[in-house]
Specification:
By secondary structure, the chain is α+β, with helices and mostly antiparallel strands. Helices cover 40% and strands 19% of the residues. It folds into 3 domains: 173 residues, no CATH class; 109 residues, no CATH class; 118 residues, Sandwich (Immunoglobulin-like). The chain is built from 17 helices and 16 strands. The strands form 5 sheets. Strands 8, 9, 10, 12 and 14 form a 5-stranded antiparallel sheet that branches. The chain has a 4-stranded antiparallel sheet with strand order 13-11-15-16, with no helix packed on it. A 3-stranded antiparallel sheet has the order 3-4-5, with no helix packed on it.
Length: 500
């Protein structure tokens, strides 16, 4: 047979185009219930945070709501403290304290805030508890979701969502109750008399709670929360993290309780996947630290239960630092490394800011004064030889009791306040806008005494009553003094104009 002159390669048939998803399709997670030390801590903080959140607006203080942030009137009532827009520095200090506290706790033990006190974690825990009570445990919930539509399935799901909505609406109502007196808000809600903004925020916060805690859950922590992305900047090798002891646990594998793991060549991990089943974000902590881990320690409780049943020491999954695992440090040595420059700096800054803020609040003057010159009447001659300036004085009494104030002026000889009732009464946590006039003789000077003064060249100046009036601006002070407390006083700088 004659061989072919030329071998022509056969090209493979083109393969079908491969589709690559830009986003991972969500796989619903069914967290398994777990009990233990850290689960008890989580529920303790759930109760503590919700008692504070739901209960605080119902407390009374001086015949008003104890904590009320009235944005419409620009006053924040926090028990006996009344903050005004001029006190925004305290809000700044509060945010800085919260930030440094978060940094400190993260540097010491990772995402403690996320795992125990974050509202997303707290309400997800509450909604999961409701789901378990109505639909059953993990396997029962999975079977219910996979079952075909039925009247029972509709009834169970409807009951669950009704319970979720009730919690969400009460949460939205409570949230708005911090900004509108909550009792009045409830009465107007019953009579369908809520304002548009109150209605919007009740509905918005209710739907946000319902959606985030009921449906999105771990998606908020994994994709929406920025903290998961920059937490690593606050970690170091001595930060306590939830860690799987690979050296002790591997090689993993199932076995019976009576089996000798040494003969089988196995580590302590029985590969039961309890740690995965109890995780609210569905990760496998045995693969190492992952940004999806919120630090809830559910895997520690689950693994400890299995270790106890197998007769192995607890702590296969535990709080530990990378250095502690690698260097086999005991608990005392590991905790000793908490006192390192990063944590000491955070602690020092935090304490300094807290002390400074507390001292500022303690020494805070309850009197605030603002003075504005009347631009419509700058300077005029009120009577022959008498010059008059017109001002507007705003007095803010931040105390929750009415006070009487005396108003005076200094800086020019013979300067007097005209057109003001003495004393001036300002109500509790009230403000008063007071127009008043200052008058002075046209030949007044800006000295405070009548003594002769000598010039640098040795010649004596003329006495005060011989001076000619000076045109232009002269510095003065407006003094507002509380009559019942000499310590409550304000000296506001202004100017008095003499016509040319």
């Amino acid at each position: 047979m004659k061989p072919p002159d030329k071998i022509i390669p056969i090209e493979p048939a083109p393969s079908a185009p491969e589709e690559i998803a830009l986003y991972e399709i969500r796989r619903k997670i069914y967290p398994r219930a777990v009990t233990g030390l850290f689960a008890n801590w989580r529920w303790a903080l759930v109760f503590a945070t919700q008692i504070v959140f739901y209960g605080l607006p119902w407390l009374s203080w001086n015949d008003r709501q104890a904590v009320l942030l009235e944005i419409a009137v620009r006053k924040f009532y926090i028990f006996g403290l009344v903050l005004w827009p001029q006190d925004v520095i305290y809000l700044t200090a509060l945010l800085i304290i919260a930030a440094y506290t978060l940094f400190l706790f993260t540097a010491v033990a990772g995402r403690l805030w996320c795992g125990y006190a974050c509202p997303q974690t707290v309400y997800t825990e509450i909604f999961l508890w409701v789901e378990r009570k109505i639909e059953g445990e993990r396997i029962a919930r999975m079977r219910l979701d996979q079952a075909p539509f039925s009247v029972r399935k509709l009834a169970v799901k409807s009951f669950k969502h009704a319970a979720w909505l009730a919690i969400a609406v009460w949460t939205g109502y409570t949230f708005v109750g911090y900004f509108t007196p909550i009792g009045d808000l409830g009465l107007r809600a019953v009579t369908w008399d809520l304002g548009p903004w109150e209605t919007f925020w009740v509905v918005f916060y209710s739907l946000a709670t319902y959606g985030n805690a009921g449906f999105m859950r771990e998606q908020v922590c994994k994709y929406m929360c920025p903290y998961a992305r920059f937490q690593s900047a606050m970690f170091d090798r001595d930060t306590l993290i939830i860690a799987y002891d690979t050296e002790r646990g591997e090689p993993r594998g199932p076995r019976s309780r009576k089996a000798d793991r040494n003969e089988a060549g196995l580590g302590h991990c029985v590969d039961c996947k309890i740690c995965v089943q109890v995780c609210p974000t569905g990760i496998d902590i045995r693969q190492g630290l992952q940004y999806e881990c919120i630090g809830c320690a559910a895997c520690i409780d689950g693994c400890d239960q299995v270790m106890g049943r197998m007769g192995y020491p607890k702590g296969l999954i535990r709080y530990a630092s990378e250095n502690a695992l690698e260097q086999h440090l005991d608990a005392s040595a590991m905790w000793a490394r908490m006192l390192r420059p990063r944590t000491l700096i955070y602690t020092g800054l935090l304490l300094a800011i807290i002390v400074a803020t507390a001292a500022s609040l303690y020494m805070r003057n309850p009197l605030k004064v603002d003075i504005i010159r009347d631009r419509g009447a700058i300077a005029r001659e009120a009577a022959p030889g008498v010059i008059e300036n017109v001002y507007r004085l705003q007095i803010m009494n931040t105390d929750e009791k009415a006070r009487q104030f005396a108003i005076s002026a200094t800086g020019l000889r013979g300067l007097k306040v005209v057109g003001v009732t003495d004393p001036v009464v300002v109500g509790a946590a009230g403000t008063l806008l007071l127009p008043f006039r200052l008058q002075v003789a046209a030949d007044a000077d800006d000295g405070d005494d009548g003594d002769d003064k000598k010039a640098d060249d040795g010649h004596e100046r003329k006495r005060h009553d011989d001076r000619r009036p000076k045109s232009g601006s002269h510095k003065i002070q407006i003094v507002v003094q509380a009559l019942d407390d000499p310590a409550i006083v304000r000296h506001e700088h202004s100017s008095f104009l003499f016509p040319r």
